[in-house]
Amino acid sequence: MSKLKNINREIKRTVLSKKCQISREDRTLTALTKLNGRVYIYCGDRKTLQQFIEDAESEYFHYGDGVSLLERKPESIMALNRDITVNFIGFVGTMAFHQVEHLGSGKDAIPLIKVDYRKYIAGCQDFIYKP
Length: 131
Fold this sequence. Notes:
- By secondary structure, the protein is α/β, with parallel strands linked by helices.
- Helix content is 38%, strand content 18%.
- It has helices at 3-18, 29-33, 46-58, 90-99, 117-122, and strands spanning 38-42, 62-63, 77-80, 85-88, 102-103, 110-116.
- Strands 2-4-3-1-6-5 form a six-stranded mixed β-sheet, sandwiched between helices.
- A hairpin with a 6-residue loop joins β5 and β6 (110-116).
């Protein structure tokens, strides 16, 4: 088996094992920022998106330039950062969300953790987004 396949398998294993490590009581956005990878939040409908914005505001998340999440129109897929910021992912990030399991290549690759926010806040054990 090639090195790349081994790395991909290890990344999938890491992402899948992480989904069970956030207890139902600890389901916060801040908890997601502590996962080992790049976290993208998927909000499939308006109600879920509104809940995401409210939750992010209550945990003091903001855009990288300090602007409140309430001041800009959000996207259905947003990225969470460890420094308690949120950012838009743009066209390329959206393509990555739908097509790849990790960002980068080789040993420097990091998992792309795709969170279905509706499942996450509902307390579902498997909250990883699956197309």
